[in-house]
Design a protein that fits this description.
The chain has one helix at 3-10, and strands at residues 17-18, 24-29, 32-39, 42-49, 60-64, 73-76, 83-89, 95-99, 104-105, 110-118, 120-125, 130-136, 142-145, 153-160, 175-184, 190-191, 195-197, 204-207, 212-214, 217-221, 227-232, 243-247, 257-261. With 269 residues, the protein is mostly beta strands. The N and C termini lie far apart (52 Å). Helices cover 3% and strands 46% of the residues.
């Protein structure tokens, strides 16, 4: 292996690339297999799912000297620029996360959970960059989250191991990790049965080792009411890691301290 090829392999999967006319790119990321082709004045896309048990630990990107034989879409774009950028994005709705095992936060206790959610993939080509498409790496099912059918919102449903030690987090380049700090000031235990994570309000960062992180979210349950103070840290998470901003929040989080009904953050869906 040459030094140049070793350097290319060490680059994060979202590093911009060039795909000449007549060439293509094969991308395997999580449960998504994506084939891209740069034809004369057009780009071709073919996407297919991968079974969860067949997911690879690392992203795989391979250049090819031909166009994909099968494709679902053709996007017309004049010019010969082969500039291609694959940008990770967070989901466009809140993700309702269920821990795989019941978790209870006792009175007066605080904990930081590291929750992961599947990312979306934004495909930009050409110079200046033109959006081709956004594709979810994993298609999550829809769920309703709220205290009633009249109060709440449509979200995505997800699962998590709710790890609370950073060294337990597996390397998965197709999922973004959100540090969620929860402080239970109430006199009763807090069951963390379902957590609505506001990922559209979070910025997404990438580390040199290919892992994805969001801003830190802090939830504080007050003793005197059924309200939670929600705060999104404006700074990058994990100060000991070298992180680069990859995508800004899809939605404006508004002021840093939000107050929501606790039943919309934890409770029945």
């Amino acid at each position: 292996m040459t030094a140049a090829s070793s350097k290319r392999q060490a680059e994060p999967w979202w590093t911009p690339r060039r795909v000449p006319v007549g060439h293509g790119l094969d991308v395997t990321l999580g449960t998504l297999r994506l084939r891209l082709g740069h034809g004369p004045d057009e780009w071709r896309i073919h996407a297919e799912p991968i079974a969860e048990e067949a997911v690879a630990k690392n992203a795989r990107i391979r250049a090819r000297r031909s166009l994909p034989a099968e494709f679902e879409e053709r996007h017309v774009l004049n010019g010969t620029s082969g500039h291609l950028t694959l940008t990770p994005l967070l989901a466009d709705r809140n993700v309702v996360i269920r821990p795989r095992q019941p978790v209870f936060l006792l009175s007066g206790q605080a904990v930081t959970l590291y929750l992961s959610t599947p990312i979306w993939l934004r495909i930009d080509v050409g110079e200046p960059a033109t959006l081709l498409r956004e594709i979810p790496v994993t298609r999550l099912s829809d769920t309703w989250f709220g205290p009633s059918t009249r109060e709440g919102e449509i979200c995505y449903a997800g699962r998590t191991h709710a790890r609370h030690h950073p060294d337990e987090i597996p390397h998965r380049p197709h999922r973004a990790i959100t540090p969620l700090h929860i402080h239970n000031k109430a006199a009763t235990p807090l069951p963390l049965e379902k957590i609505s994570l506001p990922v559209p309000m979070l910025a997404l960062y990438g580390s040199e080792d290919g892992m994805l992180w969001t801003q830190r979210v802090t939830l504080t349950r007050e003793d005197q009411s059924d309200l939670a103070a929600v705060r999104i840290d404006p700074n990058p998470p994990e100060p000991n890691r070298k992180l680069s901003l990859l995508s800004k929040p899809r939605q404006n989080p508004g002021r840093s301290g939000l107050v929501r009904a606790f039943s919309l953050l934890f409770g029945s869906a």
